[in-house]
Amino acid sequence: MTQSVKVLSAGSMRHAFPAIIGAFGQMTGIGISLSLGPAGLLRERIEAGEAFHLFASANMAHPRRLASLGITEEPVCFARNRLCVIARADLGLTTENFLDILSDPQVKIGTSTPGDDPSGDYAFEVFDLVEAQHPGMGVALKARARQLVGGRNSPPTPPGKSGGYLITDGEADLFLSYYSNARLLEADPAFRVVEIPAEFSPKVEYGLGLYKGAPDDAIELRDFLLSDQGQEILKEAGFSRVG
Fold first, then answer.
1. 4-80+203-236 belongs to which CATH class?
2. b/e burial code for range 30-66 (CB count within 10 A of at least 16 → b)
């Protein structure tokens, strides 16, 4: 048995992993060492030689690249999420007026950073889907989007700040976010959490990459995340089950 399973995980799993660590540890006695960050930057750290046992990415592309390099086994999808919008309540955003509000040049659009963080990639995929139906509009949205978090040079989230701090601080009027994070603001009257129209909503899948030659404890953790118990914990944290 290893002393602990070293996990590098997408930051959007931060609300799920405490319960996973607790349940898995109680069941097996195995500890988990957890490091959170934007999945693209974590992949770069792995490629640079950082030790790990399991990589939990917010997309399938990063663990697939590691598998192609022979660093990990072929990845498996362990959770699904969806992108939505956190907006100032007084902005009046709805799913129905989504394009009208976003296309207003006075509205400040916030996203994470494409390339470094899959959340930013998914946000820009929304704009690509808009562009396919409304030529010129998606390009304009990309040009106006403020890449505020998740990048290698992004400032850290201030201690004690909730997920909507970029809006309350005036950096954005709305922010494209994972539902697993946004749901925590649904009861706050200062914000509105709005679904993106289905035709512009990207497919959000999370992938697990197991280090080739990982110890049995790491394999056990991977299997736990895919088990009914693990999937129920992820569901309670705002993700959708796989299977």
1. alpha beta
2. bbbebebebbbbbbeebeeeeebbbbbbbbbbbbbbb
